[in-house]
């Protein structure tokens, strides 16, 4: 955990500064990062939440390669759409390859090679895999890097009605996913870009350092998902209709008249994109001739959608949304450790013994604990623990232990209590 006191000069935004200072990542080259233990733990926590919600929506996990043959992208007609952002490679046999920026072609080839009947749909598959896009100017750390970890899912349906049901499942899965990370994600109608199609929504979170200005109805900022039935097998159209009925627009789609009519209900801020979903009918199934036999014996091109979440980007986005002057404030669901245990006098026999006992009891109860037993001054330990932002801190020193107490601090609220060791253990494991 190589923390830094000073902010690296190349860091332009809060998340980049704090990720470098907290020892989460180190830059390998422009827009490409090594994930150190602290950052990697957060990345895996986010990945697991994404995975659980994809599974709950009925998607099946697969794993596709990072390096793809170029002929698939040529078959879809999309080879030139990405321009110089797509990294093209020639292997030792002079075969043209590419580092996949996304996987619509690869998954469609997998589907057409195995699916034959309407009984094979609806089908949703996803994977969580590294992508590469050769940004002309990578910046903002993991927020706009060249290499990034992404969850991309793909749906296959017999017709548009089925495809919209799949779209709605993913729409709601995204609401659930971001809520579990304590993020208020606002769905906004979006352009489809090189992905294609005629139906698309971006999910953005409000943050002062967001990439673009957005405007929305204030109800989005206080939306409580508990009021909706988000059962993946329930009536999801009503949920989607509720969320899309209220005004929400990215900077290129804003409507001055609609905003004027909202009056005090209008919220204007900056947004960070954390997810994007698309329905694109037969854009890919047509060039790949991905068909299934219908119940009446005819053949039909399947209708498809794709659904992306920037897993590594979310690490930075959560920090942008949750920090203070002292450092990161992690939501419990994605924190690298839930509890930080500070030994204020390492080498003192009584303090060491008490901390070891606390650590053993907490970890034995299934808690994730980071134990700071470095021979550092107390001020440095306090600063580092606030910087890395674990939800709870237990502070053990000789004076408190003489009275049979330790201090417990909640990182988010800043509230501190002096309690007996037994009470602290009960509070954090109850």
Short description:
It is built from twelve helices and 23 strands.
Report on the architecture of this protein.
Helices cover 32% and strands 29% of the residues. With 430 residues, it is α+β, with helices and mostly antiparallel strands. Helix 2 (37-56) runs antiparallel to helix 5 (160-180) and helix 5 (160-180) crosses helix 6 (236-245). The longest helix is centred in the middle third of the chain and has 21 residues, at 160-180. The model has no long low-confidence stretch (mean pLDDT 92).
Question: Helical percent range?
Answer: 25-40%
Described by the principal axes of the CA atoms, the overall outline is globular
What's the total number of strands?
23
Number of helices: 12
Strand percentage: 25-35%
Q: Could you list the spans in which at least 5 consecutive residues all have pLDDT below 50? A: none
- Quote the average pLDDT: 92
> How far apart lie the N and C ends?
29 Å
Largest sheet entry: 9 strands, mixed
SS class: alpha+beta
What is the element layout, followed by pairings?
Blueprint: H1 14-21, E1 25-29, E2 32-35, H2 37-56, E3 60-61, E4 67-69, H3 70-76, E5 87-90, E6 96-99, H4 104-114, E7 123-132, E8 147-157, H5 160-180, E9 185-189, E10 199-206, E11 212-217, H6 236-245, E12 248-250, H7 256-262, E13 266-281, E14 291-293, E15 299-301, E16 303-310, H8 311-321, E17 323-324, E18 327-328, E19 339-343, H9 349-364, E20 369-372, H10 378-388, E21 392-396, H11 398-402, E22 405-410, E23 416-420, H12 421-429
Parallel strand pairs: 3-7, 19-20, 19-21
Antiparallel strand pairs: 1-2, 4-6, 5-6, 7-8, 8-16, 9-10, 10-13, 11-12, 11-13, 13-16, 14-15, 17-18, 21-22, 22-23
